[in-house]
Amino acid sequence: MQEYFYTLADFINTQLQGNEIYLAEFIAEQSDFVRFNKAQILQPGSVEQRYLVIELIDGQRHVNEQLTLSGELNTDYERLTSSIRKLRNQLPHVPADPYLLYATTVNSTESIGTNNLLDAKDAVTEILTTTGDFVGIYASGGIFTGFANSFGQRNWHSSYTFNFDWSLYHSKDKAVKSAYAGFNWDSTEFQSKITNSINQLDILKQTPRTIKPGKYRVYLAPNALFEIFQLLMWDSFGLKSHRTKNTPLLRILEGQHLHPSITIMENIKDGTAPSFQSQGFIKPNQVSLIKQGIYDEALISPRSAKEYNMNTNGANDDEYPTSLDLAAGAFATDKILKELDTGIYINNLWYLNYSDRAACRMTGMTRFATFWVEQGEIVAPLNVMRWDETLYNILGDKLIALTAEREFIMEADTYEVRSTNSARLPGALVEDFTFTL
């Protein structure tokens, strides 16, 4: 993959005319996918695909196109030649872009992941022999990203990951959803997750309980917290949203603090996303977004850097964290129920949206395995409830503690190509969490 991309990059150089500059981003995967239903293989398959986004620049004018590559050089040379000719014809008809910014200093990098993945057949065998009745999808393999430009810069990133996302189903809306993702399949860790899911499924078979709306102490498992962050990450941490005051974190920018234990960063070093972006800028290993509850830095894309006269820190165009990291807390996960005492154990949330964006107030539903806990013991499953709460309570005044253990969570998105976005999150114990119905 790497050699193939670099060969194409050299070819593009030969097609340029005059003062033209090119930027090229390569995205590819070699993945195995297996869908399961009722503990049986529903659909196995393998995918190898390669895309190239080529951007042609002349002065402050620029246009781009995404190509699907065949993997056969002569065919792809023809596609590139045709694409460059088309882009060249379009350039005179687009306006100059005052915020165009791309790297001109050559900073080549190479990060080649180690393939420690189980063979797909072995992984499927273990899944089928340990999980019981379930529905889910297993995806694994290599994901490859490259960058090249006409200045001679070459960047390469490859990673080999797996992600098994599954649900043990009881009836109606009662199911236990779980996921296991990473770089090295650990049978002991996987079996522990399965055992925990089976134990929770047994509780789901009991008669569900309905409780009155109100404020309750809750435990948000890492996957529930991930749902909150998936909503939060859009338009929250980027310079553009800060300067336009479109960010849901507006009150933090104006001086309101979260709990002192909250430290959030973009942690490229320990994630699966590449350390470079599509204009050729290199990302630092870490960007501190919120430090001990206080706003620290923003993610700054090249366009925002140009518009607001700042230095870019290599953020993508959306200024969206790709390797989110919430620092761990102090209490052990095996003491969650004891610390929760009486309240609600929440594994998953869904249908999230803002009920008051400026106040970072969110609303959503509980989903799958949500339990009522009394005196440190799970006593019954709960029917679905709607909640409405602000981040300043969840991770602020009402936060009791975060767990010492964190979970590595990969986005399960496979649209066009498997996502390289990930997060490391603890669980959160929160008091006075508001349920509205």
Count of alpha/pi helices: 10
Mean pLDDT: 95
Q: Helicity, in percent?
A: 10-25%
SS elements, strand count: 18
Distance between the termini: 53 Å
Structure explained in plain terms:
The protein has 437 residues and is of the alpha+beta class. The chain is 23% helix and 41% strand. Helix 1 (2-15) crosses helix 2. The longest helix has 18 residues, at 73-90. The radius of gyration is 24 Å and the shape is globular.
Give the tags.
437 residues; PmbA/TldD fold; alpha+beta; 11-stranded mixed sheet
Q: Can you lay out the helices and strands and say which pair or pack?
A:
Elements: H1 2-15, E1 21-37, E2 40-58, E3 61-68, H2 73-90, E4 109-112, H3 120-130, E5 135-149, E6 154-171, E7 174-182, H4 187-204, E8 214-220, H5 222-232, H6 239-243, H7 250-253, E9 264-267, E10 286-291, E11 294-295, H8 302-308, E12 323-326, H9 336-340, E13 343-356, E14 361-374, E15 377-381, E16 386-390, H10 391-397, E17 399-410, E18 422-435
Helix pairs in contact: 1-2
Summarize this entry quickly:
The chain is an alpha+beta fold and 437 residues long. The protein is built from ten helices and 18 strands. A hairpin with a 4-residue loop joins strand 13 (343-356) and strand 14 (361-374).
